[in-house]
Amino acid sequence: MTSILWFRADLRLADNPALAAAADGRPVLPVFLWDEAAMGARAPGGAARWWLHHSLASLARDLAARGATLHIARGRAEEVLPRLAAATGATQVHAMRAYEPWARAQSERAHAALSGALTLHRSALLHEPHHVRTGSGNPYSVYTPFARALFAAGDPPPPIPPPARIAGIAAPGAEPLETLSLLPTRNWADAFPRHWTPGEAGAAERLARFTARALRGYDAQRNTPGVEGTSGLSPHLRWGEVSPRQVWHAARDAGATGPDTFLKEILWREFAYHLLWHRPEMPDESLKPEFRAFPWARDAALLRAWQKGRTGYPIVDAGMRQLWTTGWMHNRVRMIVASFLVKHLLQPWQDGEAWFWDTLLDADLASNTASWQWVAGCGMDAAPYFRVFNPVLQGEKFDPDGAYVRRWVPEVASLPDRFVHQPWNAPSPPCGYPKPVVDHAEARARALAAFAAIRRDAA
Asked: Which pTM was predicted?
């Protein structure tokens, strides 16, 4: 019997339960399906499309080395998959379970069109969101008890190895990867290859480097953007080039003391998907209803200054420039720049999330929207509304020698340490660098007044 393996966001051969089931002694047709109609407004943004192109090219090479050819097709899943099954005589279709609202609807349509021959496997998460419940049987709404429960559940099963050979078959109608038009037509992504190697091999190399070096100092260095203190695995996890089980066991097996701080980041990703599963409106609406009446002060010029790294606050501008150049931003700085946009500039969190969606290589619907809502104070388990990060103090605390801002904001590179995060106070402020677009104290007072107003209205 022939099987179809439907690749979604699980672009790897190791620890891929759908692959293991599809290729279990049977000929298999590996398929990647570009169903842009199903994705709608949540089709990958520009940076993520760049990554996807190169990840698919890498996956095609890996499959070819084992005897199979990646079949690339465009169209609706409920139309393409039955057509391929008829052409190949396939009686089973195996795929990973996807959790985005659009993907859940896509799965349901494909399942019906295939008359139940579609089997979904857990591949992207450690636990199914609908299986994790509180003692009272309800979904979790707070991260800490959620993480505590998953730690208590013990380590996940070990990852499964990739097959040495795959009995691949061909089917008519395959399209070249280039027809998906994933690569940018302008040269804004030219620097990405200097920082990233999409594909399963690149993920394995980055995971090995992290567990051999940075994991040992993770507790001390993870909040310091000027050093390589984090894993940098987020784009690889986003596209399933490495599984959370592989990451979990690699961290456990590294012999470092206390990997739990790092594993909590893996569990935050799980929690974001838990929220998205139970609250599918999360990508578009504030989960706390009172925030839907928040008095935003939309200002296109302020939004543009933030996007381009021209706010006059070096730690904010460094993060936004790092994002534009590399397609990635350090997690601590993500919190700082998000807080600045929402609370200092009073711009809607959805506008910031949309920019991240288009410019992040790791743009992930669950993690991106859950994190933005956390920073904005409107999520289920959110930072307190009155927490307004002071960008000067944040810079001085987490980038005390200015290594990070000097790299990404060369206009301030020559300033002494005591002025690098507040260049407007230097005896000779740098030429060409903007003054702050808002005064911190005034912006904080304005944000607190806005938050207080919606709390009064909700009372």
From this structure: 0.96
